[in-house]
Amino acid sequence: MIFSWQKELWNRLLGQPERIPHALLLSGLAGGGKIVFAQSLAARLLCEAAIGLDQACGSCPSCNWLQSGNHPDFRLIEPGSDEPVDGETESEDISAKKKSDQIRIHQIRELDDFLTIGTHRHGRRVIIIRPAEAMNQTTANSILKTLEEPSLTTLFILVTNNKKRLLPTILSRCQVLHFQKPPIPTALEWLRQSDAKHAQQLLAHAGGMPLAAMEEDGHWEQLEVFFNDLSEIEHSGPVAIAGRWESWLKENKNGEAALQRRTLIIWMQKWIFDLVSMKICGGLLFHPHKLMELRTTAERASLNALIDCYNDFLRIRAAAQHPLNLRLFLEDMLSRYARAALSGR
């Protein structure tokens, strides 16, 4: 499956399949469908029935293998659960491992055998690496040799939200496909066809990225509480709000939370960004439906304090996974915001 806003890029790429390079870099903001495009391209190139601009048939032996996760000519490289938590022994359940946010060098080295044997279906071999910026310098250097000595039957598809974080040597060995933000009417039509409620508000909050907006559709109730709490922080206070938000971030027995800490921090950054924008030019990017609330807050806040607060949240976001006490983390975060929001009084 590809999205309507990707068809031109798909047709350009598949229109000359013999000219598809050995390494593609899909680059663009998160939430635009790059991963879906990469998966669809891999399926199409491995499919034994599709021709021309067709997408994968979904029913040939190759497609069935891919759908079951067992295709012998396909590999997906992404951050995995390969870091043991402190005190873990080899006999402990694998669920105790903490999820790494990096692609490790052993994951790249495991490709050696895969690349040295012939393809099982006498066609292409496809490797997706996502997100490519999760490779540290050692890991990236490890894959450079393979990219420097390409095989005619192997395609690397790297996916990145921020190509500036990639080594120049990686960039120079890939053909970059730029994924632009889809037009707003196109994105809204897709969201409505996907039964997203509050499509316009969600799309704005997601910065115009439709898949990111769709993901937040399931958080709409929390978002409404979030907007109201920040608008009323003078009356509610950081401690009471932290108590409400704590339930969103608490993990259940399966280690899952209704909301990720990093997501909440990003919501805070977007709100503060719009306050700064309101102070400077009177416009809003992420919350046009909250114009009155943001205008009222901006009028009683100092611009310098808001900018300092935004910079504080950049540092908080960088340390989001640090195992701080959850309640103290929320109270500190909200206290910083409250000081900035009331700084002009």
What does this structure look like?
This protein has helices at residues 7-14, 34-46, 61-68, 105-109, 111-116, 137-148, 168-172, 184-193, 199-205, 210-216, 220-231, 233-236, 238-249, 261-280, 291-299, 303-318, 326-341, and strands spanning 23-27, 74-77, 125-129, 154-160, 175-178. The protein is α/β, with parallel strands linked by helices and 345 residues long. It has two domains: 4-83 and 97-180, P-loop containing nucleotide triphosphate hydrolases (Rossmann fold, 3-Layer(aba) Sandwich), CATH 3.40.50.300; 185-342, no CATH class. The longest helix has 20 residues, at 261-280. It is elongated, with a radius of gyration of 23 Å.
Short description:
The chain is 49% helix and 7% strand.
Keywords:
single chain, 345 residues, alpha/beta, Rossmann fold, 2 domains, five-stranded parallel sheet, 17 helices, 5 strands, 49% helix
Biggest β-sheet: count, sense, barrel? Answer: 5 strands, parallel
What ranges have pLDDT less than 50 throughout 5 or more consecutive residues? 81-97
Integer average pLDDT: 91
What letter string, H or E per element, gives the SSE order?
Answer: HEHHEHHEHEHEHHHHHHHHHH
Give the second-level CATH assignment, the architecture of the largest domain.
Answer: 3-Layer(aba) Sandwich
For the record, give the distance between the C-alpha atoms at the N and C termini, rounded to a whole number. Answer: 53 Å
Provide the domain count.
Answer: 2
Task: Give me the count of strands.
Answer: 5
Helix and strand composition category: alpha/beta
